[in-house]
Amino acid sequence: MKFTLTIDALALQLASTSDTLKNLAFSNEYIISKYALKGNVYEINKGLLLRKVQKLEKYYMYSFEVWADNVYVANLSTNCRQYGKAGSIKLEFQNSVFYSRPGWLHYLRQIEQHLPLSFVSVSYLEIAFDFQAATALLPQLSNMYRHSTFIQHNPNPQFGPMRGRLHCSLLSGKTYVFGAGVKGKDASGKQVVVYNKTTEIIEKSGKDYINDYYRANGFDMSLDVERVEVKLSSKYMSKHLIYLEDLTNFDTMGNIFRVSVGDTFKFRLLGSVTYDANRNKKTATVALIEFQQFSDAPLYLKPVYANDDATDNRKRTEAKTVVWRYVTYGKSQDLDHLDYIRTDVKAPGGSDWTCLFRKYAHEFHGTPTPERMARIDYFS
Questions:
Q1: Same domain, 99 and 134
Q2: How far apart, in whole angstroms, are the C-alpha atoms of residue 219 and residue 206?
Q3: Res 349 pLDDT > 60
Q4: Could you tell me which residue, 112 or 312, shows the higher pLDDT?
Q5: Are 213 and 192 members of one domain?
Q6: Is the domain of 168 the same as that of 236?
Q7: Per residue in 12-35, pLDDT tens?
Q8: Which domain holds residue 353?
Q9: Is residue 298 part of a domain?
Q10: What is the C-alpha separation between 291 and 120, in angstroms, rounded?
Q11: Same structural domain for residues 109 and 145?
């Protein structure tokens, strides 16, 4: 199988830094007062320009095109209308940035360097798995869909989703969408979409740069490229510890992709029953596509604590788990987690987190390799 993995859409939440004018967040008013208007653009410097556009935004009053080194790289939205989020700023990258160099992170750093802005969180992300396989996925998916419980009142369906509540719809006879919605009150914050990317590029003008990207990655341009795309909103992203650097690393991005897709493409064979060693009845399953190229290790969850004494046992257990995980693997995410506990979470009565972290580290009973011993000593 020939494949690539890339970001296809990315929106970030930014915030004003201390360099911003007194009592005035980075806003339309700030831009007007701070930067010279030349023609229809505000010149930040010779390489960075902002051009105000008439764009209707649901949550923001003003929007600017961001031009860096004569390339239209992103939209910057300010003056948030949402209650309690007046200082929120959205940066949404143009699609072409993900398929060319120097890439989206280069432009983000340029924006942070020359504007009083800094990254806060990822609010929307699309990761695309584009591939050419010996057996195309879409015909298999079409057959499964037509004979599945996804179609209401389907007589004698042969397939059912592994997760009983998984929703799948077919849009315009071309695109399969798993998941009820990405945004909204009842949405899960996640969708998985499958379609023919070659057909989409032909039907939508202005995306020839993706074909150039395929050629550079060794695709056979005489064959169709299929795409599996996972769409993640802030409702999903906010539950996990995901760093910007994770989105520039192939392995960690693949991990996010595989875990987010989950068992979307694994189905129960409704007419086939098997039995385990204990004679428990089980339904046989089939997987249309698996992503074994990537890790399926669980993503790091953001800690959620209540600062009341009744939760002492839960807080102790969580802190102990994170200490042991850090000693075992040495990942920076766990140190960040511990820093959060130390600074933002009330320690159990009659103790403090520094002493507890030291105690938990020295209780570690894993293999005492030199690396692990060094991490245990870190708490001493």
A1: no
A2: 20
A3: yes
A4: 112
A5: yes
A6: yes
A7: 999 887 555 555 678 999 999 999
A8: 309-378
A9: no
A10: 30
A11: no
Average pLDDT, stretch 96-112?
94
Residue 48 lies in a domain: yes
Number of domains within the chain: 3
Q: Note whether 234 and 348 are same-domain residues.
A: no
Say which residues have a Cβ less than 8 Å from residue 114's Cβ, sequence separation at least 6: 44, 45, 48
Q: Both 61 and 141 in a single domain?
A: no
SS3 112: helix
Higher pLDDT, 365 or 266: 266
Please indicate, yes or no, whether residues 100 and 136 belong to a single structural domain of this protein: no
Those residues whose C-beta lies under 8 Å from the C-beta of residue 48, and which sit 6 or more positions away, are 66, 67, 68, 110, 111, 114, 115
| Mean residue pLDDT across the chain | 88
In a domain, 120, yes or no: no
Instruction: Give 326's contacts (C-beta < 8 A, 6+ positions apart).
Output: 334, 335, 338, 375
Q: What gap in Å lies between CA 37 and CA 117, rounded to an integer?
A: 20
In this structure, are residues 178 and 193 in contact, taking their beta carbons and an 8 Å threshold? yes
240-275 pLDDT tens trace: 878 888 899 999 999 999 999 999 999 999 877 777
Q: What is the pLDDT of residue 18?
A: 59
- Write the single-letter amino acid at 106: H
Residue finishing a domain among 65, 93, 115:
115
Q: Is the pLDDT of residue 294 over 90?
A: yes
Domain membership flag for residue 325: yes
Distance of CA 65 to the CA centre of its chain: 23
**Residue 121: per-residue pLDDT:** 87
Q: How many helices (H) and strands (E) does the chain have?
A: 11, 15
CA-angle at 303, arms to 250 and 104, nearest 5°: 30
Among 149, 175, 180, smallest CA distance to 162 is for 149
Give the CB-side neighbour count of residue 123, counting CA atoms within 13 A: 14
Give 296-341 as a DSSP string: -PPPPBPP----SGGGHHHHHHHHHHHHHHHHHH--HHHHHHHHHH
Mean pLDDT of 290-304: 84
Confidence label for 182 from pLDDT (cuts 50, 70 and 90): confident
Residue-wise DSSP of 182-217? SSSTT--SEEEEEEEHHHHHHHSTT-HHHHHHHHHT
